[in-house]
Design a protein that fits this description.
The chain is of the alpha/beta class. It has helices at residues 3-32, 36-39, 42-48, 54-61, 87-97, 113-116, 125-140, 157-166, 187-198, 204-214, 226-236, 252-267, 278-281, 284-297, 303-313, 320-327, 344-350, 352-362, 454-462, 479-482, 490-499, 559-564, 583-588, and strands at 67-72, 101-107, 147-151, 173-175, 371-372, 375-376, 383-388, 391-396, 420-425, 428-433, 443-451, 470-474, 504-508, 521-526, 543-547, 552-555. The chain is globular, with a radius of gyration of 24 Å. The two termini are 33 Å apart.
């Protein structure tokens, strides 16, 4: 085991000892009560399957026949979730064939940041994660299930499902992905047209045509953003069937994996020799594995929020210092857009998760001795699923990369370090994604230009006021101020300015998209401006130094002078688009480094 991985894991275990012990005690108490259906009165139990087909009713009368919950994020508006329309029927048929039953226990909302980017609805995006967690709890609280399947893919959906399911961690839980859409227009071409539009050199029709050729069918978006980082983490944490992450929707292999999930869920239920409750699958080691996977693949910065909250739900306490320490010893093994030119389909074809996991285990960077839904040991996940004469089988994945432009071994990585670093200094604590930033842009010192929201920055660019070196300070974008929307709309504009030769960077208490790329961005600054953070006292013209190599985020103003300045005041929270319904969440949400959650 790499000594840093071991040391980080040990300090997480020590830090979490009391919280983890309390969590496991609660899960043991729930497990010891036996299957939920056995505790229900006849009237309660009859209610639970009154509308089921007659065959299911007879099986559900059998006290030993397992019943599997389905919690689904299905809607037919969003490409990633549309394939789930077919999944319940596949799952129910497979459960019946295995001697059990399956029921759709409930649905969770699934919004798309790709639709709401730059719109008021983005202010609900982060909070939707905790709504999803609570919705998952509502679905499972009927207490009629022996295991559960989580049908979710995208940004807040998987973290929310994890958080909610961990409240029922005495049950085995398997995550069932839908898979990515097939590849469309190249990412380089998509970025080129976006850049032209940001400069006024392409029409809206030309931009829409390009975007439609990129986002063109069922499945997740194919860039390596938060949604596909979710799928990577579910493999690293042992919550998928091995190799399930990046198989296309509506294919025989995807259907076979979907049908295998309820069968496996019943095989690992209470009383089996392979019992694998979620509370034991998700522990400090599996959380460290998820962090290492995120760093090795250049994954989304959103998980410096989500993974913290997910871990906390299992009684495991992590912070940004853990990400930073692991990043310094975890090499970057993947170049997937926006960290490279190719998409997740090319990554999967080059060797994908099986190759990454083999490399991380062989290098001692990830923990092998973990419980997974596939069995004891993460080595299960260096295999790949195939159909052999119509049957689902697994065999060893490739031991060498099939495309060194996309995927490399630990012995010859793209970078010696991972993609996420901690920044500290006079402006607070922040994270920065470095994997897509060229070395010459990792250090910057320039005057600040302060904006209260991203619309102000975009307007200043249109007026021609930003053709110079500067650090854009976009404040009052934290969770308490306005729900911490992603500021991905800034990426094309700042990229164009950087391409013109100007030194530019972003400093914000908000989020960037999982697709954030080549412009250095210190994000999630905490304390946020609305909660006494120093960003509220920054003025245009102050010199800011961002040094990702040294881990510094400094303001060249005497600390006493900075503290004496009257802080700026946030605009009142917006109304409309449902934002008024989330006022309670804005008032009670925790800080970014604690996961920006309202649940704890």
């Amino acid at each position: 085991m790499n000594p840093v991985t071991a040391e980080v894991t040990a300090r997480i275990v020590e830090r979490s000892a009391d919280l983890r012990a309390d969590y496991l005690e609660r899960m043991a108490a729930a497990r010891d009560q036996g299957p939920g259906r056995a505790k229900l009165s006849c009237a309660n139990w009859a209610h639970a399957f009154a509308a089921s087909p007659e065959g299911d009713k007879q099986r559900m009368r059998n006290p030993t026949a397992p019943n599997v919950a389905i919690v689904t994020s299905y809607n037919d508006m969003l490409s990633a979730h549309q394939p789930y329309e077919r999944f319940p029927d596949l799952i129910k048929a497979a459960a019946e064939a295995a001697g059990g039953t399956a029921q759709v226990a409930g649905g969770v909302p699934a919004m798309c940041d790709g639709v709401t980017q730059g719109r008021p609805g983005m202010e609900l995006s982060l909070f939707s994660r905790d709504v999803i967690a609570m919705s998952t709890a509502v679905a499972l609280t009927h207490d009629a299930f022996d295991a559960a399947l989580m049908l979710g893919v995208c940004d807040k959906i998987v973290p929310g499902l994890v958080i909610g399911a961990l409240a029922f961690g005495h049950l085995p839980v398997i995550f069932v992905p839908a898979g990515p859409m097939t590849s469309g227009v190249s990412n380089a071409e998509k970025a080129r047209v976006r850049g032209l539009y940001a400069q006024g050199l392409a029409t809206r029709d030309e931009l829409l045509d390009s975007e439609m050729k990129s986002y063109h069918g069922p499945g997740t978006c194919t860039f390596y953003g938060t949604a596909n980082s979710n799928q990577m983490m579910m493999e690293m944490m042992g919550l998928h069937l091995p190799g399930a992450a990046f198989v296309h929707p509506n294919t025989p292999l995807r259907d076979a994996l979907t049908a295998a999930a309820p069968k496996r869920a019943m095989e690992i239920a209470l009383g089996s020799n392979s019992h694998a409750p979620m509370s034991e699958v998700v522990d400090a080691k599996s959380i460290v594995n998820a962090m290492v996977g995120l760093l090795a693949t250049g994954g989304s910065t959103n998980h410096t929020l989500h993974l913290v909250a997910m871990a906390r739900s299992a009684g495991v306490l992590i912070d940004w210092s853990d990400f930073d320490a692991l990043s310094k010893v975890t090499p970057l093994l993947a170049r997937v857009y926006p960290n490279g030119s190719e998409d997740v389909n090319a990554f999967h074809a080059a060797g994908g998760m099986a190759f990454v996991i083999r490399e991380l285990l062989d290098a001692g960077l990830a923990h092998e001795d973990v419980l997974t839904i596939a069995g004891r040991g993460l080595r299960h996940y260096q295999t790949e699923p195939f159909l052999q004469d119509g049957d689902l089988v697994w065999r060893e994945g490739t031991a060498k990369s099939l495309n060194l432009d996309i995927l490399r071994p630990v012995s010859d990585p793209f970078l010696a370090e991972g993609g996420i670093r901690l920044l500290t200094g006079g402006l607070g604590r922040a994270v920065i994604k470095t994997s897509a930033v060229k070395p010459e842009h990792l250090t910057l010192e320039a005057p600040a230009i302060v904006f209260e929201d991203q619309e102000e920055l975009l307007a200043a660019h249109k007026r021609g006021e930003l053709n110079r070196d500067f650090v854009a300070v976009v404040r009052f974008q934290g969770p308490q101020a306005n729900g911490m929307p992603e500021l991905h709309s800034l990426t094309p504009t700042l990229s164009v300015l950087q391409d013109k030769g100007f030194k530019v960077a972003l400093v914000t208490d908000g989020r960037m998209s999982g697709a954030s790329g080549k412009v250095p961005a210190a994000i999630h600054v905490t304390p946020e401006a609305a909660c006494g953070g120093a960003l509220a006292q920054v003025r245009t013209g102050d010199i800011i130094r961002l040094d990702a190599l040294a881990g510094q985020l400094e303001i060249k103003v005497d600390p006493a002078e900075l503290a004496a300045r009257p802080p700026a005041v946030a605009k009142p929270a917006g109304f409309g688009y449902g934002r008024e319904l989330f006022g309670g969440m804005r008032r009670t949400v925790g800080p970014a480094e604690a996961g920006a959650s309202v649940l704890f």
